[in-house]
Design a protein that fits this description.
Blueprint lengths: L2 H12 L2 H9 L14 H7 L3 H9 L14 H8 L2 H9 L14 H7 L3 H9 L14 H7 L3 H8 L6
């Protein structure tokens, strides 16, 4: 991994929009990956750096880029619970139904970790609750397995979103 990649990822991690803008203005690519496959957008989103994420998206960051495990920025914010960034990613074309290496989706992350507000955002925007991961479990199955009763209730009534 080159120094430029390190610097871009660090700027994304801490939300240094001035540095990111300077790199973009100088023509540097923002769709770089480190050894784990992380991109500046994935790092900004995972660290709740909404301004940096917005700048990266407006500058052409690949919203559906994946890390080495197949995780997207949307999956990261669905796990962490960052609703504002989830909305922003969706507005910029995030694939709601992408599956990572084990078949999990952003909706499944939200269901497992009790991020019910994000589940509602995803469902309202067309996420498919019927996708199954590698063990054959749906988001509803995972919500029940994790004791997320409110999330299971939301997923039991997904027809209201479609």
């Amino acid at each position: 991994m080159g120094n430029l990649t390190d610097n871009l990822l660090q700027a994304a991690r801490i939300g240094d929009t001035h540095f990111l803008q300077a790199m973009i203005t100088n023509g540097n690519t923002i769709n770089v990956h480190d050894a784990k496959g992380y991109t500046p957008l994935i790092i900004a989103c995972y660290n709740n750096q909404a301004e940096a994420a917005a700048l990266l998206l407006q500058s052409g960051a690949d919203v559906n880029s994946v890390d080495a495990g197949g995780n997207t920025a949307l999956m990261g914010v669905s796990f962490k619970g960052y609703a504002e960034i989830a909305e922003m990613l969706i507005m910029h074309g995030a694939d709601l139904n992408m599956q990572h290496g084990n078949g999990g989706t952003a909706l499944m992350f939200a269901a497992m970790f009790g991020r019910n507000d994000i589940m509602e955002i995803l469902l309202r925007n067309g996420a498919n609750p019927n996708i199954v991961e590698f063990r054959g479990l749906t988001a509803l199955d995972l919500a029940i397995q994790q004791g997320n009763h409110a999330g299971a209730e939301i997923l039991s009534h997904t027809e209201i979103y479609h």
